[in-house]
Write a structure and sequence with these properties.
Blueprint lengths: L4 E3 L6 E3 L2 H21 L6 H7 L4 H7 L3 H24 L5 H18 L3 H7 L4 H25 L5 H23 L3 H28 L1
Antiparallel strand pairs: 1-2
């Protein structure tokens, strides 16, 4: 009889219960993250992850039916870390304008600093599967943005805050991607323009709040 497992979302991946199997599961995710950084989404394969993790390809397929589910599991693991980091900042008493800048800067820091995510963000421009994965990765940032705004603009409805958060993160993601491809002076100009755009948008939101 095989070991018991907990299922992730339907048809995605299996999370092992036993400690030894869980270590193997985590080794596979770490290998996938490193492989994404080195070869990118398009060239990532189940076989390359198996080699990088010093295991058999069968051990990879034991938990992940395909590379889409493998990277989705990696993103979910990273999202747990993101939420623990972001949650501490959502409800502090930082002035509103500083919060706006923090949202922009935090996003850029997380994308650049999260293994494999920058590769997925690049592939998302041309690959539908990568786009869906990257949208999944953005969920914690959208959630944090909506909570941070809701803490400061309590009269606005939750649906309105979520809408603003989604639009803002999408705009930030687009401009931030171009900044990653630019030289340092151009990158600074893009980020400064991005801050101005987001600050202007959120100032309009604050005026909307004050009218209610």
């Amino acid at each position: 009889m095989g070991e018991s497992t907990e299922m992730g979302p339907p048809n995605e991946w299996r999370v092992p219960i036993q400690e030894r199997s869980r270590r193997r599961f985590d080794e596979i995710l770490a290998a996938a993250s490193a492989e994404l950084d080195d070869v990118g989404w398009q060239r990532l394969t189940m076989a390359s992850v198996a080699r990088r993790s010093n295991g058999s390809i069968g051990s990879v397929y034991r938990y992940f039916p395909n590379k889409l589910s493998l990277v989705a599991a990696l993103i979910e693991q990273q999202n747990e870390r993101w939420l623990s980091v972001l949650d501490a900042d959502a409800h502090d008493e930082t002035p509103f304008e500083d919060t706006v800048l923090a949202i922009v800067d935090r996003y850029g820091t997380e994308v650049r600093g999260t293994p494999g995510l920058l590769s997925i963000s690049r592939a998302a421009l041309v690959d539908g599967d990568a786009y869906q994965l990257f949208q999944r990765a953005l969920c914690p940032v959208r959630q944090w943005t909506a909570e941070a705004l809701g803490h400061r603009l309590p009269r606005l409805e939750t649906s309105r805050l979520q809408e603003v958060a989604a639009v803002t993160v999408e705009a930030v993601q687009s401009l931030m991607f171009f900044s990653f491809q630019s030289d340092s002076p151009t990158r600074g100009d893009i980020l400064q323009e991005l801050r101005l755009i987001v600050r202007g948008y959120f100032n309009e939101l604050r005026q909307e709040h004050d009218r209610q």
